[in-house]
């Protein structure tokens, strides 16, 4: 718990990371536009099949015509590297102020409700993949029923891809539970003997000061608090590292399972969800401050 210069450093940490995050978010939006453009340039129609199914044992067809597989792969690589940059910078700022990274003031109340140890839950990425795949397959099915060709996307997941993703989901759930357990044990340390004893001693000193019988030694109390809290903050940092590592590994594993074209569609869905949740959350927060649902984004047309 920092005071004085510590508070100033904490404020700088917040301001600097907010600046980075806003820049990173703008770049994510730029990447989104590039991904959408690339998805529109891909011309690899998928013909209707007998007894249309959600997957097949064959490998996904490579993109043709409008954009090359190499260009698609390079675009996907750049977007993934952008995520890597985020987690690298986040880790650096966590060394300076782990508590703000775990409870980021730059996110909205809506986003906070979905947070899991300072970020998105890794299994959510897999759920996102299945949701988008289902939506695109449904759209593809309707086109197929008209005897038309469709473009290659997440609606074309093969049986082997689904098996790999299912296995990834099982392993990710196990790791999520392990990290969640570590976080629970870390949080329980707030009621550890050292914290209980220190809070009692400081409370006693406060009562003595209020009675006028003894002056408090604020410097000594602060030193004791720092000695007790610093190890706990380091523990939180280690848990955040595990959580962020799992988030990034899950993202990369999904990308590695997909074709370049499918990866583009997945990254589009991921960026759209993140950007819209942030936008909706900020709008809701502003609406609550200025009179609830009065914000323009929530006003229904007459």
Automatic annotation (TrEMBL):
User: InterPro entries annotated for this entry?
Assistant: Seed_Dev/Stress_Resp_Reg, TGA_domain
- Check the record and name the Pfam families matching this protein: DOG1 (PF14144)
Q: Which residues form a coiled coil?
A: none
**A single BP term in Gene Ontology:** DNA-templated transcription
Q: Where is the composition biased (Basic and acidic residues)?
A: 207-221
Q: Where is the DOG1 domain?
A: 14-287
Q: Transmembrane segments in this chain: where?
A: none
Q: Which domain of life is it from?
A: Eukaryota
Annotated spans, Disordered: 40-66, 207-233
Any one Gene Ontology molecular-function term assigned to this protein's record? sequence-specific DNA binding
Q: What is this protein called?
A: Protein DOG1-like 4
């Amino acid at each position: 718990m920092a005071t004085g210069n510590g508070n100033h450093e904490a404020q700088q940490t917040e301001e600097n990371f907010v600046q980075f995050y806003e820049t990173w978010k703008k770049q994510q939006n730029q990447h989104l536009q590039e991904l959408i453009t690339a998805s529109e340039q891909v011309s690899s129609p998928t013909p209707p099949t007998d007894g249309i199914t959600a997957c097949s044992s064959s490998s996904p067809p490579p993109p043709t015509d409008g954009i090359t597989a190499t260009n698609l792969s390079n675009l996907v690589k750049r977007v993934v590297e952008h995520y890597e940059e985020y987690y690298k910078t986040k880790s650096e700022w966590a060394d300076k102020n782990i508590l703000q990274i775990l409870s980021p003031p730059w996110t909205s109340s809506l986003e906070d409700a979905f947070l899991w140890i300072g970020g998105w839950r890794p299994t959510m990425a897999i759920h996102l993949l299945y949701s988008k795949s289902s939506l695109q397959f449904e759209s593809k099915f309707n086109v197929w029923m008209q005897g038309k060709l469709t473009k290659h996307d997440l609606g074309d997941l093969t049986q082997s891809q689904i098996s790999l993703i299912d296995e990834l989901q099982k392993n990710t759930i196990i790791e999520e539970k392990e990290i969640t357990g570590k976080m629970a044990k870390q949080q329980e340390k707030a009621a550890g003997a050292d914290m209980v004893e220190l809070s009692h001693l400081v409370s006693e000193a406060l009562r003595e000061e209020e009675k006028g019988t003894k002056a408090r030694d604020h410097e000594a109390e602060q030193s004791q608090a720092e000695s007790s809290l610093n190890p706990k903050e380091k523990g939180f940092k280690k848990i955040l590292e595990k959580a962020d590592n799992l988030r990034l590994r899950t993202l990369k594993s999904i990308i590695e399972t997909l074709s370049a074209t499918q990866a583009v569609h997945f990254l589009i869905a991921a960026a759209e969800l993140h950007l819209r949740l942030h936008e909706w959350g900020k709008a809701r927060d502003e609406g609550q401050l200025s009179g609830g649902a009065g914000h323009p984004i929530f006003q229904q047309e007459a």
